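User: Predict the structure for this protein chain, please.
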Amino acid sequence: MATAAPPERKQGWLDWMGLGAGTFACRTWVFGDGHTATLEHDCMIGRRIFTVDGQELYNETVFPDRGFDLEFKIGSSTGCASVKNVHRELAIYYTLAWEGKEVVSTVFRRNDAKETSLESKFGVSVPSVTDAADVTIYKVEVKNLKSGKTKSLDKRFSDFVELHHKVWSSYAGSHLLSNVPTPPERKWKLFTDHKNAAFLESRRAGLHAFISKLVQIPRISDNTYVLEFLEETTTYKGSEKPVLVSVSKVLVESSSAGDSSVTTTSTNLSAAPASDAVSAPAPQPVDGVKTSDTEATTAKPADREVASKSGPEEDAGESDWI
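Assistant: Here is the predicted structure, written as structure tokens:
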């Protein structure tokens, strides 16, 4: 019985350019009673995508890119996701406040001793490859170690490449970035026979090694892209849906003295009366110590120290700088 090829997801050339240039970053926060928020940001092309509990609240491309705040509500509770460009430091701060308190992103929070990676939950392998017509399918098997159940997923090579780019963006700014493995490199069909059995087996083995190392990375268990790839995402079951309240543009300009002046313009998107919208203040540095997540947008995967072959780097605590 023939296996249907998984649908190919099309991306614009600007999306691919941002991923390849290393200007794409992602942050995920878990807050409240199990809510999850994810912010995708490409500072080169100005793409911003913000989702809460799997619901896309904001998707815009703004060029030139500037800092911005996204205020949202779930029931009577209010949150605010903020992106701030600090040009003097060549860094970008990503923060989320919930009920006025800063939430640490899944990459920068302290490890939970009971759950640091996915290898304790799932056994993942790429046991076979099938070449049919113009499509090559790599079989990915995911075994739930608790229930013993195994499921089989069909993936294209491009799915693995996209996964690598997005996981890399999730760890940008963290000392754990060097642990992110790389899939086999692309080969031009003009110079390499992609139907050759030896080539297919070599690529399958490389993809197996890639996904096996990926699930070992510390703090990977909450990574949205890995869970989507393994089709292990969970949906928040609460009755209250998130709503985007306002979008604020934060322009930061440096004065000759080196200080910054901030100008904010806001667009209120809430259908509720203005009195119902409660502003969640953005988190501030405490005692001069910056506690926000940061990313230097000029960093690229090739600039990183190569991870040790013996296994992922151990957690050395929070590190907001690169």
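Confidence is low (pLDDT under 50) at residues 1-21, 253-264, 270-311, 314-322.
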